[in-house]
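Backbone-to-sequence.
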């Protein structure tokens, strides 16, 4: 199983690259990547785009492969395609977001273990009934995944094929991604009692 961490966005709503924001003893992406690398995933690929040079310089990855998505301005799904190209043949891919630090190794391993046991066409984390990342697609699903179009294409696939996509129970609240300064401060508050003061 190959994990694909999607971290190529420009962070327009936040106003600066979210990947390099301070988070604990590392950065927002560094924190997320640390959890992914600590998981049972066989390979880890990180897809970068905006501010890629600064992001790479801020990372202290242990085993992740860095992929640059030259087409990231054309939409987030281009990063999925770049990750799939880099992954090549594999049993399954797991899609993860680089701005979702609450998805830790325990969550990743829960979803990965459930997929490995039953090997469904797809699988998605279900946080007390609310679906969220990570999402797993088997090798049989990758052709359909590559042909997706429109807004929120991955979620459309999950919703439109409920008989093929297993829901993996995770006994936690639905994790949030970091899109705004408020999201960032909230995320810091769950991990650091004295978050750094940053300009808006």
């Amino acid at each position: 199983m190959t994990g694909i961490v999607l971290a190529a966005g420009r962070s327009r709503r936040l106003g600066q690259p979210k990947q390099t924001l301070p988070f604990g003893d590392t950065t927002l992406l560094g924190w997320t990547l640390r959890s992914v690398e600590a998981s049972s995933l066989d390979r880890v690929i990180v897809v970068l785009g905006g501010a890629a040079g600064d992001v790479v310089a801020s990372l202290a990855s242990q085993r992740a492969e860095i992929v640059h998505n030259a087409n990231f301005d054309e939409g987030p799904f281009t990063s999925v395609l770049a990750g799939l190209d880099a992954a090549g043949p594999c049993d399954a891919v797991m899609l993860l977001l680089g701005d979702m630090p609450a998805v830790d190794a325990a969550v990743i391993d829960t979803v990965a273990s459930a997929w490995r046991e039953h090997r469904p066409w797809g699988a998605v984390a279900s946080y007390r009934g609310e679906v969220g990342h990570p999402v797993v697609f088997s090798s049989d699903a990758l052709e359909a995944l590559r042909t997706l179009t429109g807004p929120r294409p991955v979620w459309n696939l999950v919703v439109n094929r409920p008989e093929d996509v297993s829901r993996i129970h995770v006994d936690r609240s639905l994790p949030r991604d970091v899109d705004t300064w408020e999201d960032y401060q909230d995320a810091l508050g769950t991990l650091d009692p004295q978050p750094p003061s940053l300009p808006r």
